[in-house]
Amino acid sequence: MEDFIMQNEKTIRLGFFLGVFTVMALFEVIAPRRALSHSKIVRWGNNLGLTIFNTFVLRVLFPTAAVGMALFAQEQGWGVFNYYPIAFPIAIIASVIVMDFFIYIQHVMVHAIPLLWRLHRVHHADLDYDVTTGARFHTLEIILSMGIKFAVILLLGPPIVAVVMFEIILNATAMFNHSNVRIPEAIDKILRSFIVTPDMHRVHHSIADDEANSNFGFSLPWWDRLFGTYRAQPRGGHAGMTIGIRSYRDSKHCSWLSGILIMPFIGKISDYAINRRQWGDNEQE
Question: How far apart are the C-alpha atoms of 153 and 27, rounded to whole Å?
């Protein structure tokens, strides 16, 4: 099984990515949650262009990616699950949950540390919110995220199957919960007990600072409730809320690849932090 996954990991992940992306893109057309306010062609072209560029960079820098690191940890006998004899199914489930928890911690960190927020604001500066937003991250943040993932894998020693499952789940849920889709309130209420829903995560992309500093979970919704960062709904409602960052509203910087790539290097490093509640009108977030 592990040999098959190692040999076909790229194909497996690409298949799931294209499948989930297609389903959610069609869902957005059939049942949109909000009216888009900016050119979809421009945003999709540049957001997906950034995704393709990031994939290329990662493959050059880390040819075997997280799966290769899991294999290395296994061969060296490093990590909790390689050191202690734990039942394989339990090791898989526990690994996926623990890795998701570290994604939550990482997400809080890139909001709390001003230097890292400069990278992460590329994700938040998207002027609309749809399935392509889920893959829109600055290249340097993607590299940082991979480094953190490597460290977690070395400490945890997860089975290779668990790493592939986690990567697939993370990518799938990122596209799902960033989608501009309307899910009936009763169903959404049930779903968000087990998974981060679009209505739950959309709050996190609000222009309001206290709303943007909530709902950090990507896949599992439990961490936000456990650590007090959960917010059920935006105060202005989903149709009325403004998406993005208040001082980045120019399509030239927010929607085009050239502006997206240089965004972290624009302006002074501010004192933006996770517990901040007020921004001045002339400040850069």
Answer: 34
